Each structure stands twice: as C-alpha cells, then as structure tokens.
Amino acid sequence: MNPNYRYDVHLPPNMEQGKSYPTIFTLHGKGSNERNMFGLVAPLADTFIIIGVRGNLPLGAGYQYYELKSLGNPIREMFDQAVQDLEAFIAYATEKYPIDAGRRYLLGFSQGAILSVALALTMGERLKGIAAMNGYIPGFVTTEYALRSMKGVSVFVSHGEYDSVFPVRIGHETAAYLRDRTEHVTFKLYPSDHGVSEENQLDFLAWVKHDAEAESI
C-alpha cells in the first residue's frame, strides 16, 4: 500500500526488538509543513514514535490538507477525502512501524486540529487520544458523519484567548461538545493569538506522557 501523504518519521533511538511504542501523528496548519510541528513533540522522541504528516496540497511555501470556500468553511468534498485518506494513512503506518495500536495520538494545530477532532469522532476508540490546538468542529461533521463512541478517548483542547483567526468562544464550544462525548477532556486557554505558546507546549507534553504511561500500566 502506498501512503497518500509524504511524511517524516522519528523512531526512538534505542528501540527494542519486538516492542511496540506509543505514537503521535502530527497534523500541521494551513500553509505550514510537517517539520514545523516536530519542535512541539521533540522532547518525546526518546519514547514515542513521531510521524509528521504533510498536507498533500501545496499552498505558498507550505501545504494544506484541504481548501476552503471561506474562513471556517471547508470545501466539503476535499475535507471528506482528507479524513478518509488520513484514516487510511494511520492504518498504513501502524502496519509498517512498531506502533502500539492502543496508544495512537493525534496532535493538530489549526487545520490539523480540525482534522484531528473529525478523526476522533469518526475513528472513536481506535485512537487513544487527540490534542487539538486552535481549531474547531465543522458543523457537517457533527450532523452528517457517522460518529463512533469516544468514551475511552482522551482529549486535550487548547486555544488562544486572543486568537484572531478562530475567536476564543470557538475553543469553548469545541471543548463543550467533546465533553458530551468523553469524560476525558482537558481544556486550556493561553494568553496568545493563533499559535502555540511555550506554556501550551509544556502542558501538552505533560498530558500526553501521563496519558500514555497510564495506559501502559
């Protein structure tokens, strides 16, 4: 099977034969790339497999996973295809690398956060957790997609209080919707614009390490 996306993979340097590892798939924002996301998760590289997935559509000097009709309004057909292709990519990577299928996480920023939430809703407990930074949930996902149980899925939602792209109320709405689907929601606000602060990064790292360790006990 050929993957639908170019990607970077970082394997733990001292991997043990026959052992499977918790894995983070990173999904970048519009106009960015997979390498820009690695800095957020680099401190985990000794114990996690890290796979940065590059959007397959060029945009300026970077990439995107789908195009927009207008801000906050994805082209439906392209969004649907991205969700389908990313789910297939996760399956491809799980077969190719020593990934612990019970500890698969998504980390997404902006467009990547939007897709991470959509994938959590459609894949359900086939994912262990997601971190969605400065994103939202498209209305058609909640009303027209076939949604799976997220009861056992851990969720980290973060948003900038001064986000000039997606107002902070969207972060509150996203967290509230997900709290109706799983008890395992952490929601954090940061005094930032549309970006990821150092405090946001440190909170995410602590969250994912704790969650993955708890699952392995």
From TrEMBL:
Q: Hydrolase among the record's keywords?
A: yes
- Which top-rank group of organisms is this from? Bacteria
Listed InterPro entries: AB_hydrolase_fold, LYPA1-2/EST-like, PLipase/COase/thioEstase
The chain positions of domain Phospholipase/carboxylesterase/thioesterase read 20-198
- Provide this UniProt record's keywords sorted from A to Z: Hydrolase
Which SUPFAM superfamilies does the UniProt record give? alpha/beta-Hydrolases
The molecular function GO annotations come to: hydrolase activity
Q: Does the keyword Hydrolase apply?
A: yes
Q: Family membership, please give it.
A: Belongs to the AB hydrolase superfamily. AB hydrolase 2 family.
Under which name does UniProt file this protein? Esterase
Organism, by scientific name, is Paenibacillus sacheonensis
